[in-house]
Amino acid sequence: MSTIDPFEVDLEARDEELWVLPRGDLDLAAAPELRETLSLALRSDAPSIVIDLRGLEFLDSTGLKALVEAHAGPEGHRVSFVRGNDMVEQVLQVSHLDDELRFRAP
Known about the structure:
About 30% of the residues lie in helices and about 30% in strands. The protein has three helices and five strands, in the order E-E-H-E-E-H-E-H. The termini are far apart.
């Protein structure tokens, strides 16, 4: 019996930063939940928002679009990313976003 990885996303304050912690499969079904969480984060007064991709097991184009929208929006200057696993990195490379998004150390 196979199990499907559920998607979860948490917000966590770390000093002056607000971390967005998605876990599981970021796909068509999960993208609305991520968008809602990112919207909350972007409406906060945190000077820096870090989206940690290390908890993702899967990333499709719909999930990728939600990440890009946060980065490219009016508050995108506050957004940075922590690199994820090899599969996530491959999606970013194929889409040529690995050089466009701002990455930082964990």
